[in-house]
Amino acid sequence: MNVIVYRYNSICEPYYINALKAVGLTIIEDNQGQLDDSLPVNDKITYLGKLIADNMPLFIFSINFFPFVAMVCERVKIPYICVSVDCPVFEIYNNAIKSPYNRLFLFDQKQYESIKGVNPKCIYHLPLGAATDRMTDTTKNVKGYDYDVSFIGSLYTEKDPYSALSIPSDVKYSLEEKMKHQLQDKIYGLEYIESTLTDNEISCIKNADPNFYSSALSVRNLDRQIALDEYIGSHVTVMERKLLINTLAENIHDARLDLFTGSDTKDISPLVHKNGIAKSFTEMPVIFKKSKININTTMRSIRSGLPQRIWDILACGGFLLTNHQPEIDLFLTPGVHLETYSSLDELVEKTNYYLEHDEEREAIALNGYNKVCAEDSVLNRVMAIIKIIMENNT
Asked: What are the extents of the domains in the chain?
């Protein structure tokens, strides 16, 4: 049975392609999204239509939602299965989400709740998964530790549209006070800012950026959500990551913090050992395995769900210390499979504790690895998707 996979260079695409093959499906790749970002949508539609006519696929699959793919699938009456690995993804609010041929899987419960009512029989909540086979193969000969504490990832300085905005000084002061309060209030989410954000503040953000995402083709006006997630959430993430890394580096005992990033590090403490970008498929898994402690801090626009980084670290057999997220207890057990923190003080305390307790730390890392291999691989998720689709089609 054939499946067409629409590709656009997502790092997660190979994981899901391998899983689809593992359940016996033949993959035909539509690489138009990889080859030319500027290709007109009509050309993409024509190419996809020809692939469908030539291969008669069981369904079309993509990582993240593409409205034009949904429209093609509705026209030819073929299911469109989409796994969203990012949050926010504003395309899921496009009117094309209403198609009865969509089967959309969202990993963030809050995001799911924000859209499920538009097409309740076709939108589902499903966590992301671990690429266990790939990660195990990459790290199978890795022994020992090269790093005490590691953080791999962007500081979001290069992904922070808020910093470029020219907005009135009184509005800017008000927003930044709210951001500081949010950082003190909770280790995740944007609830405080969301509850206090004014219409005027939203308008100032929108009017300051000519590229502010348009709601013209969306199921509802998204201005508040875009201001929160795209602008404020990104800036809070920048503030948080700088504060976290500097605080941790200055308070860990007889240990070094290694930072692997392509972001500007001028505001990072000289106590931090700064490295360049770790290559995703080759270097990053090895660093996860060779670090005594891997730190994760979830970007603020992911309100409740577990980001891909959590599953990646566990799939490498790395010890993970991550911020608490509301959905962690649904899938993993803190203190058994990983460890969590709910404040900077707790982060520092637990980092120092686990640096001094090797056997306990290594037991937790092994438990986490065994758990994701048994229950949380990408293959497990693909099989769950197929089961959901079959149950809902009977």
From this structure: 2-129+378-392, 132-375
